[in-house]
From TrEMBL:
<dbReference type="InterPro" id="IPR036390">
    <property type="entry name" value="WH_DNA-bd_sf"/>
</dbReference>
<dbReference type="InterPro" id="IPR011991">
    <property type="entry name" value="ArsR-like_HTH"/>
</dbReference>
<dbReference type="InterPro" id="IPR036388">
    <property type="entry name" value="WH-like_DNA-bd_sf"/>
</dbReference>
<protein>
    <submittedName>
        <fullName>ArsR family transcriptional regulator</fullName>
    </submittedName>
</protein>
Length: 107
């Protein structure tokens, strides 16, 4: 990862955010140790701290694995339910009077 330095204005230029929002974002990133900030003339210059960013990425990567596994399990469960509904629909289509036999039990 490059250790390039950027002014806050350069980084914020593509985004339509206020000066206050920029300052808040920079403050949060600085407190998290993801960037360092220094003054260069009238500008504030920031630099990414790759080591801290790598630690954060590794930490979040572990959660990504957990959530991916959970979403895969949910997807399988939903697919199983879809298959059951297909079977029920087919049975109902083949036996049109089936609903007449079931409905009285639920009234």
């Amino acid at each position: 990862m490059t250790l390039a330095e950027y002014t806050i204005s350069e980084l914020a230029q593509p985004y339509a955010i206020s000066l206050a929002a920029r300052a808040k974002h920079v403050s949060v990133l600085e407190k998290a140790g993801l960037i360092t900030k220094r003054r260069s003339g009238k500008e504030k210059v920031i630099q990414i701290q790759p080591t801290t960013l790598e630690v954060a990425a590794a930490y979040l990567g572990e959660y990504e694995k957990i959530w991916s596994a959970r979403f895969d399990a949910l997807e399988k469960l939903l697919e199983d339910k879809r298959q059951i509904l297909k079977v029920c629909y087919l049975r109902h289509s083949l036996q049109p009077n089936l609903q007449d036999n079931i409905v009285p039990y639920y009234q």
